[in-house]
């Protein structure tokens, strides 16, 4: 049985919920109240080494990090979501974009809009005075421009005819761009890609 340690407002958790829905995999959801610091326990650390959500248990196996979870699920339950050999490099590159460029731009920018600056600073592990919102905005515009350029020439990020886990990895926060005060109309290829994902069988929207 799969158990997902989850929070309804987390974009990283949403990636996993979405993928589980798309592959038709049943799971138990356990709410982790990160705003109340309920993830900061020794018990949860045994499941998630850095006490972060999402985390997944698959029988006796515990997996943490949304991208590791997506890849675990694809390898074990939905190999059609893994790119063929010729596109593997591109798939992993865009998963890396999600884990690095998006995680350091759109993800924290959205956080500053949905919680207080003090709470955002806590989750980002910085002093509130060091929150660089203009820098987040510049980095967000840069990564969205690059994604838009890629998607202008390809339906899916890995470059093939069908979506891969890379699309789900990057979609998690791209789906929430409006919550970061981003006008997605400025990125028409991303807007079209988001529509294609919403049309996939089993799709579930973000949010509580």
Automatic annotation (TrEMBL):
EC nos: 1.8.4.-
Molecular-function GO term, any one: oxidoreductase activity
UniProt KW Oxidoreductase keyword: yes
Record Pfam families: GST_C (PF00043), GST_N (PF02798)
InterPro entries per record: Glutathione-S-Trfase_C-like, Glutathione-S-Trfase_C_sf, Glutathione_S-Trfase, Glutathione_S-Trfase_N, GST_C, Thioredoxin-like_sf
Domain GST C-terminal per the UniProt entry, residue ranges: 84-208
Keywords linked to the UniProt accession: Oxidoreductase
Domain named GST N-terminal: residues: 1-81
Domain of life: Bacteria
Top-rank EC class of the record's enzyme: oxidoreductase
Family of the protein in this entry: Belongs to the GST superfamily.
PANTHER family named in the record: GLUTATHIONE S-TRANSFERASE-RELATED, HYPOTHETICAL GLUTATHIONE S-TRANSFERASE LIKE PROTEIN
Protein name, entry field: Disulfide-bond oxidoreductase YfcG
Organism: Achromobacter anxifer
Gene name as annotated: yfcG_4
């Amino acid at each position: 049985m799969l158990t997902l340690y989850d929070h309804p407002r987390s974009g990283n958790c949403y990636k996993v919920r979405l993928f589980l829905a798309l592959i038709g995999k049943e799971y138990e959801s356990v709410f982790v109240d990160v705003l109340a610091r309920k993830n900061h326990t020794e018990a949860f650390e045994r499941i998630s080494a850095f006490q972060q959500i999402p985390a997944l248990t698959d029988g006796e196996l515990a997996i943490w990090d949304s991208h590791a979870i997506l890849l675990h699920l694809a390898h074990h339950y939905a190999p059609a979501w893994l790119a063929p050999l010729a596109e593997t490099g591109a798939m992993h590159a865009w998963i890396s974009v999600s884990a690095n460029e998006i995680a350091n731009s759109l993800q924290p920018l959205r956080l500053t809009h949905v919680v207080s600056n003090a709470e955002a600073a806590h989750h980002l592990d910085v002093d509130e005075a060091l929150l660089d919102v203009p820098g987040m905005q510049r980095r967000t515009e840069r990564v969205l421009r690059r994604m838009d350029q890629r998607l202008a020439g390809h339906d899916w990020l890995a470059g093939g005819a069908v979506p891969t886990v890379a699309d789900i990895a990057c979609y998690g926060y791209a789906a929430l761009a409006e919550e970061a005060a981003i006008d997605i109309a400025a990125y028409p290829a991303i807007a079209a890609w988001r529509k294609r994902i919403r049309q996939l069988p089993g799709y579930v929207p973000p949010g509580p």
